[in-house]
Write the structure tokens for this entry.
Amino acid sequence: MSVRRVKLDFAGLKVEFCDRERAIRQVEEFAERGTWHPIVVFGPEGCGKTAWLKQASETLKEFGFSVIYFNPMRKEFLAEVGIKSLEERARELVRRASSVHALAEFAVNVIDFAVEAMRSGRKRLAMVVDDAFHLMGTREASFIVKGMLEVIEYPPEGCERVVAIAATSEGLSRAEIGRHRWALLRPMWNMSKKGLEELYEKLPSPRMDFEDVWRLTGGNPEVLARLYKAEWSADAVVRDLVSFKKLDVFVSSLASDEREYLLEATKDPDTLLTRERIPLLNKLVEMNLVIDAVPERRPEHWIDEPPPQRDLELGIGSRIAWQTPLHRDAVKKALETFTAR
């Protein structure tokens, strides 16, 4: 079955969803059998989770699913279920929300809408929750996942199939959800080199040399967009990351031995996996700078293709990985600034 590719906003342009062939096939498999547990996808910030969930929603619709899609960051709450009253209520919730944080409080409505749609005779239903967890407390995030699981386990009579997918970049939310075993946690990595080049080619010239782009982004489409908007200045992107993540304050707060550990981790992130360095690792996870406990590279453990087993040039260790090479470079910059004082 040939699935329509959605058009997405990227760096001020409209581009067609590209690459991620295996990830699309995985959504087709979800559609064919449903999901036994909610699928919670985690991965680097800007790796393309939102783009994939948009494409997943379209794919599921083509397989006959009614889809409830919720993304408070983009102020999107769509109930495409063929029930006018539900669809209007979803639009009203967005209008009523005074901020993205207020809108996040409506995440529980995804569960209520799903139940109501199935009671109204919708036999195939998908719940897709994107980018909500970091606006909520970890307990609230886990309650949403538990609610999705209850819809899967106890659907109204006549419901054939349920698909539930959520995404987070938040290490703490992921840990809380995983602790309860209410979901299947599945990582998604940055784009493949071939896929990123396809996206890169959609940007107007003049462009930075692609090999340099790959080395700086590690396949992260959001970092590619940042480079493009910064007129291909890696230094400008690094400075923005230092400022946005408050890395100068973070580095200053560390003890001298922790700064040494951090410097070593910029060369090999796996060095963080020792007892005395775990507290530092936890801080880096909380700040969305590294991904911890990267699973083995067996494809069934991943959404789309896994990263290489180890690639220190891109900041990828066997068990720990920097979210992107530029996240690592921003930490190095903050360390250098501190040392130069």
